[in-house]
């Protein structure tokens, strides 16, 4: 394979580095902040839990079920996250190399993020029967990382104007802001996804896309009827705390791994992020 084909091809080393770094970054960050995800899920699906403060929720879970219960379900989540983020970063950076012009645009970042996460969600939700519960909301939620990456890439390009080196703190801050925007915008659908996956909703038996859409709409309306519009955002505090910190740390690890690997391999990055 020639140098030119290697630098822009589907199987380029740079694309593989991005994929591995993205997977490692996401696994590291999720492991550190996994208890926050446990608290968020409990708030979303446990109607009897009155505590709204994340620290109180974590203390209650640890007291009632033990410290290790905060990491219950860690392995399947991490396994799925590792695979899906590998696919996501590989697809995103492959599309980025194919579509790149003199300067990348936010609209392209949004499109590439949407396509990339569609692939990664399909991979992550591979399975049969009830393993597909919540798949439709998952696929709709491809807008979450799409919006996240659009803002992340735009803010990073702005911060790096004139060849300025971006610090780890700035990467952390940019990643946090981008994720906060994306999470707030898509949180109601994430609540629906959690309820469907925990089997707390009995569908009308209709299958297919129409049935799934009806279930999603019914859940949203039921949530509003029972808890008001703010009920769609129950647990948002825990979700923001978990996802914002996780995404911010993930981007720092991702950027550091890619930079160190490229430096070690002597690869000069031709793409401006």
UniProtKB/TrEMBL annotation:
The keyword Transport applies. Keywords: Membrane, Repeat, Transmembrane, Transmembrane helix, Transport. PROSITE patterns: SOLCAR. Pfam families: Mito_carr. InterPro entries: MCP_dom_sf, MCP_transmembrane, Mito/Peroxisomal_Carrier. It comes from the Eukaryota. One of its GO terms (molecular function) is FMN transmembrane transporter activity. It is a multi-pass membrane protein. This is Peroxisomal membrane PMP34-like protein.
